[in-house]
């Protein structure tokens, strides 16, 4: 088999992104507009692109609204206002737009409907703190959670209980209007309560859970925040609450759809494919598991034979201990490089489908069988760079960053391990 591993891996990544884009997935789910008012609101990395689809689908209908997307993820809409705010650490713009969203839905009737366009990133973008908590408080806790190694469901549990809009509270504000949430999942298991902290669905977690998470990761928590989390008013809207009886939730894109699209492309190129699905855990540890699978394929032809592709998604975590730069995908590949030590015939790409790995300007990076040797020649020790959490710096030095720019969608991480036959390096 003759193929260009770099080109193929990038093509597979691009295929996964396109499969999860709102332009491919949203329109067929939208309801008919009839009677009453239709207000469109939204938040997330795909919110701007979703708003464009709504305007194109309802070009002759009276719709308006307001959505918020990260800086650089906006849209050219005529009737739906698109505001940009900070992600992953919230800023004043996110707080202001959250207040405006609540004002928009504050006096609706049973004849009205709310279209809520939701995707990953919404937690930071709709940043309206609960009573007695400041935006600075939320920012500080958010930064600490991001560095702690906490999983996304744990981070969002804390966020929900410190919010005036998440954890079902937006649905309560919209009552008695009908609420139609159209969501792109960026979380393992596609749990509605976790995607952007579930503003329109019931939340089974408790304030006690949030306190336990803060203790688990030894996060310094001011006394007034602990007091709020011990106050019954901090509880979120629970499943079965009457205010959720007219709230409907639909997934329009999932990580599995993106992996399936990439797998189909790989099979068309003559590769066997193994999809591991959504994975969680420390990026460096998940990489070691992938390295073990790749070696098993190369040495023993199990669980499938080369040439083949191993795909996985989900959201790994990074416990930040060093002073380097890089997100979880660069960290994954750096750990993979250190584990494989230039094993021949193994290539890999890892990237975030939103186009931003952590807080850097790359989506991810690419590892070749030569990466380990090239790094040593450049004076880079992969293990030392891993200790410093410097995945971005490592792959930037090798010229192997993957840069897409904002993709305006987000189904989280994409990891592809390409394993070729021994003659192909």
UniProtKB/TrEMBL annotation:
SUPFAM superfamilies from the UniProt entry: GckA/TtuD-like
Keyword annotations of the record: ATP-binding, Kinase, Nucleotide-binding, Transferase
Database matches in InterPro entries: GK-like_C_sf, GK_N_sf, MOFRL, MOFRL_assoc_dom, MOFRL_protein
Pfam families the record matches: DUF4147 (PF13660), MOFRL (PF05161)
Domain of life: Bacteria
Parts of the chain that traverse the membrane: none
Domain MOFRL residues, every copy: 308-413
Domain MOFRL-associated, residue spans: 9-230
Gene Ontology CC, one term: cytoplasm
GO molecular function: ATP binding; glycerate kinase activity
Residue runs in coiled coils: none
Designated name of the protein: Glycerate 2-kinase
């Amino acid at each position: 088999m003759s193929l260009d591993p770099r080109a193929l891996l990038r093509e597979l990544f691009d295929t996964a992104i396109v499969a999860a884009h709102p332009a491919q997935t949203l329109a067929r789910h939208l309801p008919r507009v009839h009677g009453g008012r239709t207000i469109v609101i939204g938040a997330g990395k795909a919110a701007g692109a979703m708003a464009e689809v709504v305007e194109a689908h309802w070009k002759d209908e009276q719709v308006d609204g307001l959505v918020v997307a990260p800086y650089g993820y906006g849209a050219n809409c005529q009737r739906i206002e698109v505001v940009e705010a900070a992600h992953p650490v919230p800023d004043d713009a996110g707080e202001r737009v959250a207040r405006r969203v609540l004002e928009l839905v504050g006096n609706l009737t049973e004849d009205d409907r709310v279209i809520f366009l939701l995707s990953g990133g919404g937690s930071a973008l709709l940043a309206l703190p609960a009573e007695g908590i400041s935006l600075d408080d939320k920012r500080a806790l958010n930064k600490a959670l991001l560095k702690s190694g906490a999983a996304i469901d744990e981070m969002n549990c804390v966020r929900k209980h410190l919010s005036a809009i998440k954890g079902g509270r937006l649905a309560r504000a919209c009552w008695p209007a009908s609420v139609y949430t159209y969501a792109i999942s960026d979380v393992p298991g596609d749990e509605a309560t976790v995607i952007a902290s579930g503003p329109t669905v019931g939340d089974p977690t408790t304030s006690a859970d949030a306190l336990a998470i803060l203790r688990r990761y030894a996060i310094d928590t001011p006394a007034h925040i602990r007091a709020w989390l011990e106050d019954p008013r901090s509880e979120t809207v629970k499943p079965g609450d009457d205010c959720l009886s007219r709230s409907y939730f639909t997934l329009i894109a999932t990580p599995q759809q993106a992996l399936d699209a990439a797998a189909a492309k790989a099979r068309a190129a003559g590769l066997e494919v193994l999809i591991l699905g959504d994975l969680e855990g420390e990026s460096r540890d998940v990489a070691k598991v992938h390295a073990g699978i790749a070696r098993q394929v190369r040495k023993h032809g199990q669980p499938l034979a080369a040439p083949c592709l191993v795909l996985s998604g989900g959201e790994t975590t990074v416990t930040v201990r060093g002073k380097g730069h890089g997100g979880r995908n660069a960290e994954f590949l750096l750990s993979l490089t250190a584990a494989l030590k230039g094993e021949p015939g193994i290539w890999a790409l890892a990237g975030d489908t939103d186009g931003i790995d952590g807080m850097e300007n790359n989506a991810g990076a690419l590892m070749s069988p030569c990466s380990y040797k090239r790094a040593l020649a450049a004076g880079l020790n992969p293990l030392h760079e891993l200790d410093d959490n410097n995945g971005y710096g490592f792959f930037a030095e090798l010229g192997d960053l993957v840069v897409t720019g904002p993709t305006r969608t987000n189904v989280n991480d994409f990891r592809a391990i390409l394993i070729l036959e021994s003659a192909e390096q």
